[in-house]
UniProtKB/TrEMBL annotation, chain A:
Pfam families for the chain: E2_bind, ThiF
Family: Belongs to the ubiquitin-activating E1 family. UBA3 subfamily.
Protein name in UniProt: NEDD8-activating enzyme E1 catalytic subunit
EC number: 6.2.1.64
Pathway recorded for this protein: Protein modification; protein neddylation
UniProtKB/TrEMBL annotation, chain B:
Claim: Cytoplasm is one of the keywords in the record: no
Source species: Pterulicium gracile
Upper taxonomic lineage: Eukaryota, Fungi, Dikarya, Basidiomycota, Agaricomycotina
Pfam families the UniProt entry points to: ThiF (PF00899)
Coiled-coil annotated residue ranges, if any: none
Family, as annotated: Belongs to the ubiquitin-activating E1 family. ULA1 subfamily.
Protein name as catalogued: NEDD8-activating enzyme E1 regulatory subunit
Length: 433, 528
């Protein structure tokens, strides 16, 4: 393995100068009042941290840059990082491993090079691509995984993957997952022990619902500048450009949307369509600053350090921060959800009207905050109800959309829901009211 | 940089902006939080850091990235092997032996070429004693892990007058940390709070009343009826309610429920969603529009009873004008022009929005009249942009009262009270203070838990029983009294920079008291 060779070449000993870890060794050389009695201070834990432990960082953006720097300084020396993005100029106000000359280059590679240049002896192995490209064997090689992502879908994927990885016969298969997220002055970090603590999917209902404007408002009664922008991007773009995909990073595309939205706003005498707002609405931009990312990334890395070394108790299991009015934070234990489709195993009881069609049921599933499935396919143990793909099966099952669920599934019967974006299936137990 | 708020309909829709310049694109994600005005404040600020420790460098990183104007690191030490191991803004062992401030400044400046940075290699103690005006020339002074004597001098120095820079005092030991901000007073116009301004539905201004009165709810087209904005519905509903209730709005719980039903009874069809929205907003009618007590309490500020002149702080000139404004009927705050979105067709909504905008403009003109009165007839003293900001945020103004650094530790009863209210977090503060006091007496030794207990008792009083939590947090501090862990440094770096940004931009609300941090249980709290 290449990483093994590089560990030997660049490994800790050759780069460690005397006193390099003076500060950190103070917590590795003796326990504190809240340290697990099993903690063995001294050489062994240092060797594990610096020579053995392999950690995966998912995301090399706002949180990722901070996470990589913190891990490197605390003594993790075999770090892997995955990110599918390239650097944009708007990243530079917080993603401090990148410079203007790096714009357009892959985040994972630039970040890895920077860390290795700055912190002697640390090996960072980048992968410029998607987490979904990697298989179970890849994820099994790590001791810990830290996520600094802005995508719910990617988080659900890695969470489900790590939960599925757990083999009760093999304790090594349980990979602690530390997840951080920020939005403006707010953020959270949490520790997930797959199958032991609540998982990401358990807390899906805590997410804010994304603002969605009803299509009839956009089409007929616009009132806000946002309505005009949605009109331009959702209705006018496909009408004018047909199949051509909108690229929200292309200034020409944003410019077109902005001018179309501004014209509509003028027609309806609506104020406030600007370039910045247009970009904000179509890209769903979330404000992001260095300071919040620093706090949350530090918290994530601190948990990784405590878990890797047992030098102090770790977070159980959720830290929430709001920094707008003073500093408010809340540390609590998020409970597992027995009916969690990923780690719970029990089927979800759902009560619907006998009159509901399959289409109505799908509509409800898409809207349901604790499920959030975009294009669900439905089947029972003995038949397919509706499949989104492939096209032949979609066409074959489409007539079912108008049928009543009660004609297809008996009282107490189960429906299995799958979706291409999710690496798990959800089981619904149907009751009629 | 553009400001979406200040564009009127003509410029917004006839002159199209081109793609923003590279500076605006670089700062886009933060401009959405503090806008061009906050950015300008940052760019005009000068921050002084006392020490080039890992924590100081982390704080500065989060100020350099968003683009403060200038920073200086005052530090006469050379990089030690220990420093080189825990500070990202040193180049590993190759930085050892070089001046620490110079190395850290050089590497921080790579993050943003808009920022000016300077290394000052003088001794902190000497500068505090011999060149106090230099220290006072900054916007903000931040000190990390300074000793007690120096902190006392510094805090005295910057407690001379209200115009002295705020002082942020940061201390850390292993997984434990705390910081506080010393300031006299901090006035915030843009607190970005969740407070919702009144829509005046209970005290409709004349054009709103006229508009509502001109609508014949009964005979209008059913589609138009289902497009009536809830503001109009509620103004009418409250009018008719008052007619049958001796001119009084709904008061008791039962009356409020009845009022909701009254709103729903106005529907022509059961599925009119605008009336459902009106029902959901009906509670607002039961809250009389007055001057909220949080705002009227500001009027008793001593600055308003002293004579105001054009050189008085603009915030107090504006506050004095506000006081005059609210003394006139209808005794309300100036109207905030932003109308929330509501179910309505475009025509109704835009018309209503215009009414609010016109009224808000008229009231702003009246407000400016009072401002002129406050200034004895002089005009143009306060910039129009600031008047706009003040009036727009008038329902969420805040004046924070600060304390001198260390004040809590001198008030034994208060400290003891904090210990009984929040034993865990107050113990963290007490233990951090005990560490500072211990090192003042025995600079080069590490305390035991027992020694920290002894010092803590001397601070809080011998007769006060230390809570059991004290041993836990003080035990943690005794484990690592001088350790500066990279994760703690990074955590503090984010927290302190965040509060510094709030102080500099005068937006959002900074902490008062001590923010204590425990990174074993991963919690923060405010003490004192």
């Amino acid at each position: 393995m290449s990483s093994h060779e590089s560990t030997e070449q660049n490994g800790s000993a050759s780069h460690d100068w005397p006193d390099r870890y003076h500060h950190i060794d103070q917590v590795l050389d003796k326990p504190g009042p809240r340290t697990d009695p099993g903690f063995a201070p001294g050489a062994e834990v240092k060797t594990f941290l610096r020579d053995t432990c392999k950690i995966l960082v998912i995301g090399a953006g706002g949180l990722g840059c901070e996470i990589l720097a913190n891990l490197a300084l605390t003594g993790f020396k075999d770090i892997h990082v995955i990110d599918m993005d390239t650097i944009d100029i708007s990243n530079l106000n917080r993603q401090f491993l990148f410079r203007p000359k790096d714009v357009g280059n892959p985040k994972a590679i630039v970040a890895a090079d920077y860390i290795m240049k700055r912190v002697p002896g640390v090996v960072v192995t980048p992968y410029y691509g998607k987490i979904q490209d990697k298989d179970d064997d890849y994820y099994l090689q790590f001791n810990l995984v830290i996520c600094g992502l802005d995508s719910v879908e990617a988080r659900r994927w890695i969470n489900a993957t790590l939960v599925n990885l757990v083999d009760p016969e093999n304790p090594e298969s349980l990979k602690p997952l530390i997840d951080g997220g920020t939005e403006g002055f707010k953020g959270q970090s949490r520790v997930i022990l797959p199958t032991v603590t609540s998982c990401y999917e358990c807390s899906l209902d805590m997410l804010n619902k994304p603002t969605a404007f009803p299509i009839c408002t956009i089409a007929n009664t616009p009132r806000l500048p946002e309505h005009c922008i949605e009109w331009a991007s959702v209705l006018e773009w496909p009408k004018v450009h047909g199949e051509k995909k909108m690229d929200t990073d292309d200034p020409e595309h944003i410019g077109w949307l902005y001018s179309v939205a501004a014209a509509r706003a003028k027609e309806f005498k609506i104020e406030g369509v600007t370039w910045s707002l247009t970009q904000g609405v179509v890209k769903n931009i979330i404000p992001a600053i260095a300071s919040t990312n620093a706090i949350i990334a530090a918290s994530c890395c601190n948990e990784a350090f405590k878990i890797a070394t047992s030098s102090a108790a770790y977070l159980n299991n959720y830290f929430m921060l709001i920094g707008t009015d003073g500093v408010y934070s809340f540390t609590f234990e998020h409970e597992r959800r027995p009916e969690c489709p990923v780690c719970g195993g029990e089927s979800v009881d759902i009560s619907i009207s006998r009159e509901w069609t399959v289409e109505r049921l799908i509509e409800m599933l898409v809207e349901k905050q604790d499920i959030q499935i975009k294009k669900p396919s439905l089947s029972t143990p003995d038949k397919q109800i509706y499949l989104q793909a492939p096209p032949q099966l979609e066409a074959a099952t489409r007539p079912n959309l108008e049928k009543k669920v009660s004609d297809l599934v008996p009282e107490g019967g189960e429906i299995t829901i799958t979706a291409s974006s999710l690496p798990f299936s959800l089981s619904l137990k149907i009751q009629y009211r | 940089m553009h400001d979406s708020e200040s564009q009127d309909i003509e410029t917004a829709t006839t002159v199209l902006e081109s793609q923003p310049d590279s500076k605006t694109r670089r700062y886009d994600r933060q401009l959405r939080l503090w806008a061009a005005s906050g950015q300008r404040a940052l760019e005009n600020s000068r921050v002084l850091l006392l020490s080039g420790s890992a924590t100081s460098a982390s704080i500065l990183k989060n100020l350099v990235l968003p683009g403060i104007g200038h920073f200086t690191i005052l530090d006469d030490s050379l990089v030690t092997p220990r420093d080189a191991g825990n500070n990202f803004f040193l180049e590993g062992d190759s930085s050892i032996g070089k001046p620490r401030a110079e190395e850290v400044v050089r590497l921080l400046l790579e993050l943003n070429d808009q920022v000016e940075g300077k290394a000052d290699l003088r001794n902190v103690k000497n500068v505090v004693e011999e060149d106090p005006e230099y220290i006072k020339s900054f916007t903000l002074v931040i000190a990390h892990n300074l000793d007690l004597e120096l902190l006392r001098k510094l805090s005295n120095l910057l407690w001379g007058s209200e115009t002295d820079p705020a002082l942020m005092v940061v201390s850390s030991a292993g997984f434990m940390a705390e910081f506080s901000i010393q300031f006299y007073e901090h006035c915030v116009m843009e607190s970005h709070s969740d407070a919702v301004p009144s829509l005046r539905m209970d005290k409709p201004f004349s054009s709103l009343l006229e508009y509502t009165d001109g609508l014949d709810f009964q005979s209008m087209d059913p589609t138009d009826h289902s497009h009536l904005p809830y503001v109009v519905i509620l103004v009418r509903a409250l009018q008719t309610w008052k007619q049958s209730h001796d001119g009084s709005p709904p008061k008791s719980y039962a009356e409020k429920q009845e009022f909701k039903q009254h709103v729903l009874d106005m529907r022509l069809k059961l599925d009119e969603e605008n009336f459902e929205e009106a029902e959901a907003q009906a509670y607002r009618c039961a809250i009389a529009t007055t001057v909220p007590s949080e705002i009227s309490s500001l009027f008793s500020h001593p600055a308003l009873s002293a004579p105001l002149t054009p050189t008085s702080p603009p915030f107090f000139l504006l506050l004095a004008a506000l006081k005059k404004f609210t003394e006139q009927p209808p005794h309300v705050l100036p109207l905030t022009s932003t109308l929330p979105d509501m179910r309505a067709d475009t025509k109704n909504y835009i018309h209503l929005q215009k009414l609010y905008k016109k009224q808000a403009d008229d009231e702003k003109t009246a407000f400016k009249g009072y401002l002129k009165e406050v200034l004895g007839g002089e005009e143009g003293v306060v910039e129009d942009a600031m008047v706009d900001t003040f009036v727009k945020n008038v329902h969420q103004l805040k004046i924070l009262k600060g304390k001198k650094w260390g004040a809590l530790d001198k008030e034994k009863t208060l400290l003891a009270q904090e210990l009984s209210n929040a034993p865990n977090h107050a113990s963290t503060h007490l233990a951090m203070s005990a560490l500072l006091h211990y090192h003042a007496q025995s600079p080069d030794t590490d305390p035991t838990l027992e020694q920290l207990r002894t010092v803590a008792h001397s601070l809080v009083g011998q007769d006060v029983q230390l809570p059991e939590e004290f041993d836990v947090v003080a035990g943690e501090i005794a484990r690592t009294p001088t350790a500066e862990l990279p994760n703690t440094a990074a955590f503090l770096g984010g927290m302190v920079a965040q509060e510094a940004i709030k102080m500099i931009t005068k937006q959002y609300v900074p902490i008062t008291g001590y923010c204590v941090i425990d990174l074993v249980e991963t919690s923060t709290a405010i003490v004192g």
